[in-house]
Design brief:
Blueprint: H1 5-75, H2 78-81, H3 88-91, E1 96-103, E2 108-110, E3 114-115, H4 126-134, E4 138-139, E5 143-144, E6 151-161, E7 164-174, H5 176-184, E8 192-196, E9 202-205, H6 225-231, E10 234-240, E11 243-252, E12 257-264, H7 265-268, H8 270-316, H9 332-419
Antiparallel strand pairs: 1-2, 1-7, 2-3, 4-6, 5-6, 6-7, 8-9, 8-12, 10-11, 11-12
Helix pairs in contact: 1-8, 8-9
């Protein structure tokens, strides 16, 4: 099937639109991928920065226990070690709820709780045993303190006199500050943060989860618990009670706590959504512009050609009185129009000349016809004369023949007469 110019230009416009759509789609995919990677990296960076800040804060609180243990180790005197006022050196820190000392001789004293000697054996306490085993500063797992009934983590350091272990200092660090930090952790002012230990106990959150509950029971993030403990840092998509979210997380090295933030997918990918909408708008505008340009171009070619076709049909039908075609463009179409107008003029002049010549030939023919008529009359007259002469000749021939017969008869009569 043969396609007209209009159909060909329409096909060209569609083809150009498809090419533009493919290019725009590829550009959007690359841009979207890069933007998504940037957003995810930004979320990971925020969580990582919060993790490092928490790590720094924990170390800062733990240093006070190390400082006090070194100071008591240098004193060495048992009576001085058991002086409660020595514990006041670090008790002024509002984040330290309690400062406790335990010695090998079972002496156990808390700055705020008082003397537990004889009632509780400090050497059986986990923080005491861990500090002794590590021979250095340690941070315990989070737990609820029986004295304050608050969620705390303990930093403990061994007391050594002349290089020998003689006891340990323990600072109970209030995790309310961690909870405050969790509440401040946001992604561009949005998101729900959470901090939990390696066993899955939630230490702080600004969401609807309960502190001291098991994160594995929390919809969405709990399903990725093993992944987070194994990988240590990263992000994943999840479906929580709030809808589709992106969860980025990092691990605090000293405690192996996991700190994370969940942000709505719509919020995280809002720039990507805007980019997608921008690409759609630009693509649609580009397609419309492409169709308009192709339509205008097609019209600028098809319209003059249609007029040429119409005039050519008029000439075919013998109409030489058509007006000249207007020359709208100074291009090949304009040159073709000019040539067609010139051809029309030449054809009109030729036909006019032929008409004049035909008239002259017709006049000459009429003269020839008149001459022929005159010649025909003369010929008829000559023929009649010849016919008359012929008739006269026949009469004369008859008379001569009769005369011959009479002569023969006379000759016979004379011969008869002679014989007689």
């Amino acid at each position: 099937m043969s396609l007209g110019l209009k159909q060909k230009f329409t096909f060209l416009a569609i083809l150009s639109g498809l090419v533009a759509l493919i290019i725009a789609g590829a550009g959007y995919y690359v841009s979207y991928t890069n933007l998504s990677a940037t957003i995810e990296s930004e979320m990971e960076a925020i969580v990582d920065a919060q993790g490092k800040e928490l790590e720094s804060w924990l170390k800062e609180k733990g240093v006070s226990a190390q400082y006090l243990s070194d100071l008591l180790g240098n004193i060495g005197d048992a009576n001085q070690l058991k002086n409660p006022n020595m514990l006041s050196l670090t008790s002024s820190d509002k984040d330290i709820l309690e400062v406790t000392i335990g010695l090998q001789d079972k002496y156990f004293y808390g700055y705020h709780a008082g003397d537990f000697t004889g009632r509780i054996d400090p050497t059986g306490r986990p923080w005491y045993q861990q500090a002794k085993a590590a021979n250095g500063l340690i941070l315990t797992e989070a737990y609820v303190d029986t004295y304050t009934n608050k969620l705390v983590v303990s930093s403990a350091a061994p007391i050594k006199a002349n290089g020998q272990f003689i006891g340990a200092i323990c600072n109970d660090i209030d995790l309310d500050s961690v909870d405050k930090q969790a509440k401040l952790m946001k992604y561009h002012g949005e998101g729900t943060s959470i901090i939990f230990d390696k066993n899955g106990m939630i230490l702080a959150t600004n969401g609807d989860a309960q502190v001291n509950s098991d994160i594995k029971a929390l919809k969405g993030v709990g399903e990725h618990y093993n992944e987070m403990i194994t990988n240590g840092a990263g992000y994943f998509e999840m479906e929580s009670r709030r809808g589709d979210e992106i969860f980025a997380y990092a691990t605090v090295p000293s405690t192996k706590w996991v700190i994370g933030i969940a942000v709505s997918s719509d919020t995280v990918f809002e720039p990507a959504i805007k980019l997608r909408n921008l690409f759609i708008i630009c693509t649609v505008i580009g397609l419309i512009f492409s169709f308009i340009v192709c339509g205008k171009t097609a019209a600028s070619i098809i319209s003059p050609l249609s007029e040429l076709e119409h005039h050519a049909k008029q000439l075919t039908n013998g109409n030489l009185r058509i007006d000249d075609l207007p020359i709208k463009f100074n291009d090949e179409i304009g040159s073709l129009t000019t040539a067609f107008n010139d051809m029309t003029h030449s054809l009109r002049r030729l036909i006019t000349k032929m008409a004049t010549t035909s008239e002259q030939v017709a006049a000459s023919s009429e003269q020839l016809t008149a001459s022929a008529d005159q010649s025909s009359v003369a010929i008829n007259q000559v023929a009649e004369s010849i016919t008359t002469v012929a008739g006269a000749c026949n009469e004369q021939f008859t008379e001569v023949e009769n005369a011959g017969q009479q002569s023969d008869q006379l000759k016979q009569n004379m011969k008869t007469f002679t014989d007689m």
